Structures are given as structure tokens and as C-alpha cells.
Amino acid sequence: MQKGSFFENSKRLFHKSLQHIAFSDDALKILDRPKETIEVTIPVRMDDGTLEVFTGYRVHYSDLLGPMKGGIRYHPLVNLDEVTSLAFLMAFKCAVVGLPFGGAKGGVIVDPKKLSKHELERLSRGYIRAIYEFIGPDIDIPAPDVYTNEMIMGWMADEYNKISRKLTPAVITGKPVSLGGSLGRNDATGRGAYYVLRELVKALKLKPKNLRVAIQGFGNAGFHAASLLHQDGFRIVGLSDSKGGILTEHGTLDPSSIMRIKEKQGTLEGVYCKGTVCDVIDHKKVSNEQLLESNVDILIPAAIENQITKDNAGRIKAKIICEIANGPTTAEADELLAKKGKLVIPDILANAGGVTVSYFEWLQNRSGQYWSEKEVHAKLETMMIEGFRSVYSLQKSKKIDMRTAAYAHAAKKIMGAIEARGTTAYFKQ
Q1: Are the C-beta atoms of 320 and 236 separated by less than 8 Å?
Q2: C-alpha–C-alpha distance, residues 97 and 348, integer Å
Q3: Are 110 and 54 in contact (CB under 8 A)?
Q4: Residue, of 22 and 221, whose pLDDT is higher
Q5: Which of 19, 78, 238, 333 has its Cα between 20 and 30 A from that of 429?
Q6: Taking Cα atoms as reference points, which of 352, 289, 362, 340 lies closest to residue 141?
Q7: No. of H helices and E strands in the chain?
Q8: Is position 105 annotated as part of the catalytic site?
Q9: Cβ pair 256, 233 in contact under 8 A
Q10: 31-179 matches 188-350 in fold
Q11: Rounded distance, CA 326 to CA 323, Å?
């Protein structure tokens, strides 16, 4: 991978943690590169009769702790570097909260907004045909990601079933509930982040009503995190989507009201209108860059990678940063934030709620026993709190930042699995 790539940035953050744990050179050699990668071409007959050929990827980073787990994203900027990095992050994300999974990721280079529903289905089924031998409930279990959803996962699971000539619900998670999906999956990522942030606020003995929160990225995860924090009394003062955001100097924004307006108008800019539909608190329009640098106590990047960089890290005012997005902070920015005393809850901990409930779905599919939403929430809360406490305890004892502690905690588990199979030291005896 090229210098400065997303993957190299992710590995740099991981390497920083190694000074705090004992490990063998063998383990590092194995973890520094993916286990295997597949690139596929997917021919799709379009509605007008023409043929388009799309490129897709699936990366298996590590299966040291169990079958691999990771989403599938549809985006015009999907590339192998991105998919490899996300598979790497997924391996650590699973380990940090104690899931018996390794890391994988997939993607297709496509703008799904330009496809009809029929074309989207043909593409989704074609992708599964192309990677069929690369996945399975005991090998690699895909899930939704950017611009994929439960409907697409349902198509993919159905295609796998057709090829295998048997029903295998555990092959894919994030499916519709009627097709074996889990209750509680829709809000899992945002809810998991909420549980972790809530525990940190308790540990620091802070009061929610005194904390101003800004959230960059008002999609599924950002919305649910905002809603749960709002219910707990946190002051939600800033929200943004890809086209811009809103910020209030006084009072608190109501995420549910703003989401209703966004759904009607198509963007947060739709909040700027006349009439009762705009019955929200006074606010001003801001850019995503301005929202990141706003005067808040807690900043939640919940959009895409590389939003906090060396160029703007020095202007970040928030004391706490909770990363719901994957890789929103570059390695250079992370160092600057640490020097300024910022407390960052890293993505591999903060956004692990999604994969945790995917794990629950996999368990339910395999056992044939399904849980209530209340049970799912309770199990998720337990696992996220345990993950947080392990990382926070290591951070305090080693006097290191939380990202380094999270990577060290996860790396110790993954490297332990490598070393249990024998290392150079063992074979030289």
C-alpha cells in the first residue's frame, strides 16, 4: 500500500500500541498484511439492455480468533486500500469487545443512487456469485455497510441459499427480521457508542446536562446516538450531514424532530424553511468543517474516514471525541490531539455495537432461538461496558491514550492466538 494510505495510517496507530505489550516478531509479521484478497468483476444487465461490468473486492484480514466478519459497502470511491484497512480495523474491533471473530470487509465500486432497484438486486446477487467460495457461516460472514441495507443483505443471503441449495441464514447478518435478522440491529452502532460514552462520562464524574455535543454525520448511527444521548439529558447543539449542518448557541436540538424534517426535505438544509414544520430551536447554518471545530464538550465524528487531520486537529475544541465513523482521525492528528490532552474513544471500541449485534444474529441463526429486542439491548450493553472497562483500565494503568490502550488490549488477544500455534522461539529450541 502506498505511503499515507488509509491502511498505512491504521497500521501506524496499531504499531504505537506495541510498546505496551509483549509480542513475538512472528505475530507482527502475520498481522502486518491481510490473509487473502479477492478482486472480482460483476457483469450486470442494465434495464435499458446494455451491459455494465462492476469491480468488487473482499478482503480476509485475519481468522485467528474465529470466522471473519465485516460489511459490504457500495460506493464510487471504494478501493482496495480502503477495504483492506476496514478489514484490519474489523479484526481489532471484534477482539476489543471479545467477539470470536476475525476481520473482513467487502465493497463494490458503484454509485448505488444511479441504479434502479432491479439493477441493484442484480448487482448484489452477482457479487455473491462472484465471492461465493470466499464466504460462509464458518468462514466469513458479511453484513451491511455504507449504502447497503437489510434488503440488499436479504438478496445476498437468498442468492447464497440458491447456489448452496440449502437454507443457511447464518451466512449473512443485517438481514430483515422476517428472514432471520435480529431485533435491535438497526440502532446497534449508535446504541453501542452511547453505552461507551455514557460509561466514560460516569467515570469522569461529569453531568450530562452540562455537556454540549456535536455530531458530524446524521445517518443511522449518528441519529441513534444523538437520540439516546438527548434522552439522557446531554445537550445536542450541533448536527450535520454530507451537505452541511446546524449549530445552536443556546438550548438543545431535538434529533427526532430534525430527522423528520430532514426526511421530508432531503437534507438538514431543509430545516431552513417557514412554518410549523420548522418548529426547532434557533440555530445557524454551518459547514462540516465548522461543526468539527465548534465550541463543544463532546465531538462525535459519525460520517466517513479522515475528517480530523493534522490541518484541523489544532482547532478541535471538544475535550472528548467519540469516533462512530471508521478511521475519522489520521495518525498525525491523533498525536496532536493526545498532546492537547483530548480524550478520544477510538472507533474500534466506540462503533463495535454493530458487529456485536451481528454476532448475536449469527448466534440466533445457528441456534434457531431468537431474542427479544430487550434481550439484545441488555446483552449489547453488557459487552460494550465490559469492553470499555477493559480499555479504560489499561489506559489508566499504563498512562496512555485510549486508542493505544484499545489496540493493545485487542492485539494481546490476537497475538496470543498466533503465539499459541508456536513461534520462532519455540521451534528453535
Answers
A1: no
A2: 9
A3: yes
A4: 221
A5: 19
A6: 362
A7: 15, 12
A8: yes
A9: no
A10: yes
A11: 7
For 267, phi and psi rounded to 5 degrees?
Answer: -160, 160
Query: By the 8 A CB rule, do 219 and 190 touch?
Result: no
Phi/psi region, residue 43 (left: phi>0; alpha: psi -120 to 50; beta: rest), is beta
Model pTM score: 0.89
CB 191 within 8 A of CB 378: no
Q: Band of the pLDDT at 429, cuts 50, 70, 90? A: low
pLDDT in tens, 50-92: 999 999 999 999 999 999 999 999 999 999 999 999 999 999 9
| Top-confidence residue, 193 or 1 | 193
DSSP state for residue 329 in the 8-state scheme? B
Give SS3 for 225: helix
31-179 maps to CATH 3.40.190.10: no
Closest CA to 145 of 308, 355, 314, 294: 355
In this prediction, residues 198-226 reach a mean pLDDT of: 93
CB–CB of 345/352 below 8 Å?
no
User: Domains of the chain: which residue ranges?
Assistant: 31-179, 188-350
C-beta atoms surrounding 31 within 10 Å: 23
H or E stretch at 43? strand 36-45
- Given 11, 69, 105, 175, the catalytic residue: 105
DSSP, collapsed to helix, strand or coil, labels residue 248 as coil
Name residues whose C-beta falls within 8 Å of residue 37's C-beta, 6 or more positions apart in sequence: 57, 58, 59, 60, 80, 84
What DSSP string describes 168-207?
-GGG--S--GGGTPPTT-TTHHHHHHHHHHHHHHHHTT--
Cell of 373: 429486542
Averaged pLDDT of the chain: 89
**Measured between alpha carbons, how far is 371 from 244 in angstroms, rounded to an integer?**
39
